[in-house]
Amino acid sequence: MLTCTLVLLEMGYDKEEIQRRLMELKPLEMRLQLKKGKNNSSIIDDSYSNDLASLEIALHFLSQQNQYSKKKLILSDFEGERWTPKFQEKLQKLLSLGSLQEIIFIGSRLDNIFVSSDTQRTVYPDTDTLLQNIGKHDFSESVILIKGARKYRLERLSKLLTEKSHETVLQINLNALEHNLKQYRSKLAPHVKLMVMVKAFSYGSGSFEIANMLQFNNVDYLTVAFADEGAELRRAGVQLPIMVLSPHESAFEDIVRYKLEPEIYSVRVLKAFIAYLQAKGLTDYPVHIKLDTGMHRLGFMEHEVDEMLEILLRQSRVKVRSAFSHLVGAGDPQLLAFTQQQISLYQRLVKKIEKHIGYSFIRHICNTSGIVHHPEAHMDMVRLGIGLYGYDMTSTALDLQEVGRLKTTITQIKRLPMTETVGYDRKGRLRKDSVIATVKIGYADGYSRRFGNGVGEMMVNGHVCVRWAISVWICVCWTLPILMQQKEMRL
Question: Are 318 and 273 in contact (CB under 8 A)?
């Protein structure tokens, strides 16, 4: 924009005219996005630029996606690239690195590109011809990378293959997620393992999308709240060890079927799981022993450990993979003494367990806050939770980035005099002549009713709009909430 402004000034354009024209510019999405596609598919939309460097990055991202076994590429010609034998050789080498089941080329020059004989190959002269023949291709149960130069307008293809899009979306920035992961990793010694919480479908950020990224970044463990979450990750191709928090007896079948590892927090659950494994004829199944050192939610109390050990010593069905506990106030300096008390109790209990069962296991007690504030307690592994998603209320030592952004669009704008009111019960009383915007978001999208009546804030084109503070006031459209079904994973 600065370059454009300087050029226009040099050409003699009026400053007011330049300002007016700049205000009319609209942002374009020009970053790789992962979207939910039709017929059980995933769409990697990178349809705004095409060169060998960005193609390599996009293919690299495609290789991380394991939710569907079939991987396909739609690739346009390279605008502005000199078509030399060296360029063609590099392109063919890039395309041969990925295990692609199908490649669709757009542009006659790509007719000379050949890849593996196992890869189905089709060439179209232009995007319009591909759109006319799109029914000939089966994109179901596939991950499809759409990669093209701007002039080919492949966003039309992306829109066609993507599930019905909504103007209210939750955007997840995978770059920010990776950045936050590295921030916490920087606090760990090389030998310390990292378990990452992806429970509640990664706190609403997406299940396999986040898990695939974590798997690619070589985390050691994932943790889910329920067995069905772990089952979904397994079906999406995630191979990492997965711990299941507080499993119910009805979930034992799925736990074993999908090779999940249950948290064992009571004598009742321990006995029930051993009995289930015995009926199935299984031995040495990995479990995680939860110790209650002060949180007082789930876990074996100190006086229950002896009974737990007696049961473990009499059987061969389960094997302790880890023993862990949870810190109550790791980031609160006023609770430092209690935290040290928890750590001491935990260390005493795990020594006792290790001595009696005769083998070692993974020890971990630090949660997100503990990673930063208690490096002395990192032990064998730490558990990263909400901090991965950019929230750590107890630390300013990390440069965390915003991961999620809830976005919507304005439906209608009205100019009202100060004598009018807005909304139910006439509670939205105007103090001056105002501009009122109604936006497409409501309860079903997770926008709390508590944000009404001037409590909440929104940003319009990057500017915070606060009720009464400036002339724009946001009126949320409660009567027509649009259910948010699409998550755009932004890289």
Answer: yes
Does the domain formed by 171-389 have CATH 3.20.20.10?
yes
Let me know the angle formed at the C-alpha of 299 by 296 and 301, rounded to the nearest 5 degrees: 75
Set 182, 271, 424, 427: catalytic member: 424
User: Which residues, other chains included, contact 471 with Cβ-Cβ below 8 Å and sequence gap of 6+?
Assistant: 432, 433, 434, 435
Among residues 442, 463, 440, 467, the alpha carbon closest in space to that of 454 is found at 467
430-479 tens-digit pLDDT: 888 888 888 888 777 777 777 776 677 788 877 887 543 333 344 444 33
Classify residue 363 as exposed, middle or buried by CB count within 10 Å of its CB (0-12, 13-18, 19+).
buried
pTM of the complete model: 0.72
Quote the Cα angle for 287-292-294, to 5°.
Answer: 155
Which one is catalytic: 199, 319, 352, 440? 199
Instruction: Tell me the per-residue pLDDT of 192-217, one tens digit each, with 9 for 90 and over.
Output: 999 999 976 565 566 778 888 899 89
**33-165: CATH superfamily:** Mur ligase, C-terminal domain (3.90.190.20)
Return the closest-CA partner of residue 380 out of 194, 196, 183, 242: 194
Q: Is 424 a catalytic residue?
A: yes
Rounded to whole angstroms, the Cα distance separating 481 from 184 reads 38
